[in-house]
């Protein structure tokens, strides 16, 4: 059966070799450890959605290979409708979790990107990469795999290319090619959802030249593969995660450093091996789709912020309508990034291999907005909530429940007559978490930097074409080329 349940998913994680660390200790079970259980819970809700009539249409689809029902996050996106469901899925998951579920996102995009790129490489080089990829996709669909995606390398000195780094392990690289596979070394950094994933799809983090060909590698590995050490990053909410209380929701995000030390990858899981010429295509296709869809992520979380703002207003004793102008601004921000992402998809086209590729100009424009508008949405949410959500001056759950003085804390936390102190506290903590804690990652640099996106926008502006429109409308008969640069 291709559709897995929450229980199937949790069981699959429990069966994996422990190789995730945080705070200097090995996590024996990612499904129960305080450092990782919340991100597992977030991903588990995607499996719940597959069986919920309200969400099943978004959470599931039919395999283009087998005709069987599968989890949508393992599918090929072959049409405009398919890729629009990517955005719908992301917005849905933020509604259900309030945070990032990278294991249902980046790996999904990676398999679609590599479907197109392997087609092109096979056509030029006579390789059989796409057949290998198809075999793995069928495996992922059959087992309902949660797959993190890893592009970002540690990078090292930003002024040097990968092959020029004093430590070559700063970027993931091919150390050795064997008859039956490859050996890789290096680091992928700040990767979302790894602890909650079954496998990790590795892609090159940059477009490489011939001298950097050792870094041109794409493959997929089990999360618990021998030789891989995963170190979870510290987060502002870590201290609160150690307790079961309303100081932090039951869902959450996780990010990690992936340290590969001579890891062997069998050939059937290798989809690029030194074909440096196509690393640029991977970056091009990946960012076009990812930066179109990421508008749905921030929109989904923005929807939750609107709801949380309404709740805190009521808990403060006010009608949400008191702040309607600010709520309208929040909604406009949400629909701007979501709608521009959909527009990028609609302006895109189907690749000859079969997977959809969004329009890069609109997609990268969307990334710039994703790096700006959500911060305004967060500010407005804090503005509506007041000091209790933004200043950090709010007693902890333990103080709230203290047998000695907790009743006094609750007495003064309570505001409106209709709602309890705990209700106000929960609404306030949720807004704090959405706007200061888990809600911040993914806006500025998630999916790449806004400055990088601006470079793509710049490259896609047909400046001379636009200047020609204006010249003719103005009745200018002289040619007006750009002046030559002064030497």
Automatic annotation (TrEMBL):
Top-rank taxon: Bacteria
Keyword Oxidoreductase: yes
Stretches of the chain forming a coiled coil according to its record: none
GO molecular function: isomerase activity; oxidoreductase activity, acting on the CH-CH group of donors
Domain HpaB/PvcC/4-BUDH N-terminal, residue spans: 5-272
Pfam families, per database record: HpaB (PF03241), HpaB_N (PF11794)
Gene3D superfamilies given in the database record: 4-hydroxybutyryl-coa dehydratase, domain 1, Butyryl-CoA Dehydrogenase, subunit A, domain 2, Butyryl-CoA Dehydrogenase, subunit A, domain 3
PANTHER family on file: 4-HYDROXYPHENYLACETATE 3-MONOOXYGENASE-RELATED
Designated name of the protein: 4-hydroxybutyryl-CoA dehydratase / vinylacetyl-CoA-Delta-isomerase
Organism of derivation: Desulfofundulus thermosubterraneus DSM 16057
């Amino acid at each position: 059966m291709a559709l897995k349940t929450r229980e199937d998913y949790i069981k699959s994680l429990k069966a994996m070799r422990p190789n995730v660390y945080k705070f200097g200790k090995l996590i024996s079970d990612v499904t129960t450890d305080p450092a990782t259980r919340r991100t597992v819970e977030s991903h588990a809700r995607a499996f719940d959605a597959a069986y919920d009539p309200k969400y099943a249409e978004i959470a599931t689809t039919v395999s283009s290979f087998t005709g069987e029902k599968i989890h949508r996050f393992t599918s090929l996106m072959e049409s405009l409708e398919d890729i629009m469901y990517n955005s719908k899925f992301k917005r849905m998951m933020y509604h259900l979790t309030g945070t990032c579920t990278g294991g249902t996102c980046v790996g999904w995009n990676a398999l679609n990107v590599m479907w197109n790129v392997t087609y092109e490489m096979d056509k030029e080089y006579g390789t059989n990469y796409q057949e290998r990829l198809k075999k793995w996709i069928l495996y992922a669909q059959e087992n309902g795999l949660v797959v993190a995606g890893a592009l970002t390398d540690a990078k090292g000195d930003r002024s040097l290319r990968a092959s020029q780094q004093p430590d070559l392990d700063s970027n993931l690289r091919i150390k050795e090619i064997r008859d039956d596979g490859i050996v890789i070394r290096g680091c992928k950094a700040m990767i979302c959802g790894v602890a909650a994933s079954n496998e990790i799809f590795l892609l090159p983090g940059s477009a490489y030249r011939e001298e950097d060909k050792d870094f041109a590698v794409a493959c997929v590995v089990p999360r618990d593969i021998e030789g891989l050490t995963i170190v979870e990053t510290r987060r502002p909410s870590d201290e609160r995660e150690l307790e079961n209380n309303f100081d932090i929701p039951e869902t959450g995000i996780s990010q990690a450093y992936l340290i590969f030390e001579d890891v062997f990858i069998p050939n059937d899981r290798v989809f690029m091996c030194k074909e440096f010429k196509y690393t640029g295509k991977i970056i091009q296709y990946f960012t076009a789709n990812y930066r179109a869809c990421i508008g749905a992520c921030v929109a989904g979380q923005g929807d939750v912020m609107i709801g949380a703002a309404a709740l805190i207003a009521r808990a403060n004793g006010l009608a949400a309508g008191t702040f309607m102008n600010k709520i309208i601004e929040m909604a406009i921000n949400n629909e701007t990034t979501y709608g521009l992402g959909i527009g990028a998809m609609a302006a895109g086209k189907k690749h000859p291999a079969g997977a959809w590729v969004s329009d890069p100009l609109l997609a990268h424009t969307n990334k710039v907005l994703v790096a700006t508008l959500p911060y305004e949405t967060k500010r407005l949410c804090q503005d509506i909530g007041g000091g209790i959500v933004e200043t950090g001056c709010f007693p902890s759950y333990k103080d709230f429940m203290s047998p000695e003085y907790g009743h006094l804390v609750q007495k003064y936390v309570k505001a409106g007559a209709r709602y309890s102190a705990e209700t106000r506290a929960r609404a306030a903590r949720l807004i704090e978490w959405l706007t200061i804690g888990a809600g911040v990652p993914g806006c500025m640099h998630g999916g790449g930097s806004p400055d990088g996106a601006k470079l793509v926008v710049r490259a896609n502006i047909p400046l001379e074409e636009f200047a020609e429109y204006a010249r003719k409308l103005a009745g200018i008969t002289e040619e007006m080329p750009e002046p030559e640069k002064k030497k």
